[in-house]
Design brief:
The structure holds two protein chains of two kinds. Chain A is an alpha/beta fold. Chain A has seven helices and ten strands. In chain A, the strands form two sheets. A six-stranded mixed sheet of chain A has the order 6-7-8-3-9-10, sandwiched between helices. A four-stranded antiparallel sheet of chain A has the order 2-1-4-5, covered by helices on one side. Chain B is mainly α. Chain B has a single domain, classed as MetI-like (MetI-like fold, Orthogonal Bundle), CATH 1.10.3720. In chain B, helix 5 crosses helix 6, helix 6 packs antiparallel against helix 8 and helix 9 packs antiparallel against helix 10. The longest helix of chain B is centred in the last third of the chain and has 36 residues. The chains are: A alpha/beta, B mainly alpha.
């Protein structure tokens, strides 16, 4: 029995638009072990989100296999919960009801259900906001509710698609620390996507650096710093520098993108 | 308060038109005689009889239309291919004034309560169906992705995701339908009814009591206004209850 929770093997993806075809992913393979935090790091358009969506079951690969906990992924499932950048909550449900949503339909006694919900909400520090609606909370708190729902469901894996990208720096740092604290406690397996090098270095046990056009995993880089990490430390800078160098080496000298 | 100011201005203009134009009572009754007619109708109690009958028909036709329209709309909104077939049918039926069906309605449903109910049904059905379908179709993909991820499907998906997510659109359809339904109430009651506000108008016209005709018109207008306010309150209550404010 291997401890690999996620096994992605030789995955291919092409987007065909009329006569043009875009090679999004080319022979991508990687493994994620139980309890690991792994980050897919790459520029926008490198296919990292597509790769995440495949593990979640939202998209199908054109070739290769995606295996989650020994079973091929064919459709989205409760074993693998995705957290999105923006909308994770139902605006017409309170915090409590949004977390409860994750456990509705599960055949567990009500007492245990409530305990799981409350434990998850305590873990993210929102036990005093049960009856608030999402629009009454800040963006960071909303993401914490979403994390609580995922935790209450006790999935094999939590997938995160740039979940903190819409937050301001302070909130982002705070949530990153919260995530590490919770993960330390529950040993949840987390696979996340980001284009933020600092975030990747701060959170990950391993960074998978992706090159674009077509998307490939260019480098599998373990981060061997003890957590919690010092964002201003020398080692941290070293990693940041190495990652930037890897991007240089990835041989994709594109025109820089300017976003106004 | 604004309502009162508006009404006062309306009555003043009405009285001025009557003075300046010098119209006889037989052509344009004065506010005073209409006021007397209103009081007479209220004191006699006939008003409430008619109003009660009209409201009963309205509610029957409205709910008979709205409930299937919402259910059908939620199903059709989820089946774009099927909707592509239904859409042209609806678009052809919708612009036909419900009154145009009245010959068939009388043939099929006879006279009495039914014509008014059927006409209100037709008037209320399409706005609700169309807004529900539109609302379901424009539900944010993100919500559906969450549902997929949580393995919520079929009936549970409809109840916990589709209905609430489409609800702001549905409510705007419900409100629209109250308006059109109430408008066609009078037309419906002119087709062989022996009671109701519409009948009050036809009957008063036949006996040349134009002040009663205008009184009936005022009652219809005011009741329509109150119904709209009522559904506005419902909208607000739902907005509060479900943590989202429907667009007004």
């Amino acid at each position: 029995m291997s401890t690999d929770v996620i096994e992605v093997t030789d995955v291919e993806k092409k987007f065909v638009n009329g006569k043009e075809s875009l090679h999004v992913l080319d022979q991508v393979s990687y493994r994620v072990k139980k309890g690991e935090i792994v980050t897919l790091l790459g520029k926008s358009g490198c296919g990292k989100s597509t790769l995440l969506n495949m593990v979640a079951g939202f998209e199908k690969a054109d070739g290769g296999t995606v295996i989650l906990d020994g079973h091929e992924v064919k459709r989205p499932s409760r074993k693998c919960i995705m957290l999105f950048q923006q909308i994770n909550l139902l605006p017409w449900r309170t915090v409590l009801k949004n977390v409860e949503l994750g456990l509705e339909g599960e055949k567990i006694p009500g007492v245990e259900k409530n305990k799981r919900i409350m434990d998850a909400l305590k873990l993210v520090g929102l036990e005093n906001y049960l009856h608030q609606f999402p629009h009454e909370l800040s963006g960071g708190m909303q993401q914490r509710v979403a994390i609580a729902r995922a935790l209450a469901m006790q999935p094999d894996v939590i997938l995160m698609d740039e979940p903190f990208a819409a937050l301001d720096t302070f909130n982002r740092y705070f949530l990153q620390d919260e995530l590490l604290r919770i993960q330390e406690k529950l040993k949840t397996t987390i696979l996340m996507v980001t284009h933020d090098i600092d975030e990747a270095v701060y959170l990950s046990d391993r960074i998978l650096i992706m090159s674009s056009h077509p998307g490939r995993i260019f480098k599998d880089m373990p981060i061997k710093l003890a957590k919690p990490r010092d964002r201003a430390g020398e080692d941290f800078h070293q990693y940041r520098k190495r990652i930037l160098e890897e991007f240089e080496l990835s041989g994709n000298h594109q025109e820089p993108e300017y976003i106004i | 308060m604004n309502f009162l100011i508006g009404m006062v201005i309306l009555v003043i203009i009405w009285q001025l038109v009557k003075w300046v134009g010098g119209y006889p009572e037989a052509l344009l009754p004065s506010p005073l005689s209409v006021g007397k007619a209103i009081i007479a109708l209220i004191v006699e109690g006939t008003l409430f009889e008619h109003l009660q009958v009209s409201l009963g028909r309205f509610l029957a036709g409205y709910f008979l239309a709205v409930i299937p329209a919402i259910l059908l709309g939620m199903i059709l909104g989820r089946l774009p291919k099927v909707w592509q077939v239904f859409d042209p049918i609806v678009q052809v039926l919708r612009p036909v004034s419900p009154v145009a069906w009245s010959p068939f309605i009388v043939l099929w449903f006879g006279i009495g309560n039914m014509p008014a109910i059927v006409i209100i049904f037709i008037a209320a059905f399409f706005p609700v169906l169309l807004t529900t379908v539109a609302g379901v179709k424009k539900i944010d993909r993100s919500y559906l992705k969450i549902a997929e991820n949580l393995e919520i499907r079929n009936l549970k998906l409809m109840v916990t995701f589709i209905f609430p997510a489409a609800f702001p659109s549905i409510v705007s359809g419900l409100r629209l339908a109250v308006g059109t339904g109430w408008i066609f109430l009078v037309a419906g009651e002119m087709v062989g009814a022996q009671s109701g506000l519409g009948f009050l108008i036809v009957d008063s016209r036949n006996t040349l009591n134009l002040d009663y005709v205008l009184a009936g018109i005022i009652f219809i207008g005011v009741s329509g206004f109150l119904l709209d306010r009522l559904i506005g309150l419902f909208e607000g209550w739902v907005g509060k209850h479900w943590g989202m404010t429907a667009r007004t």
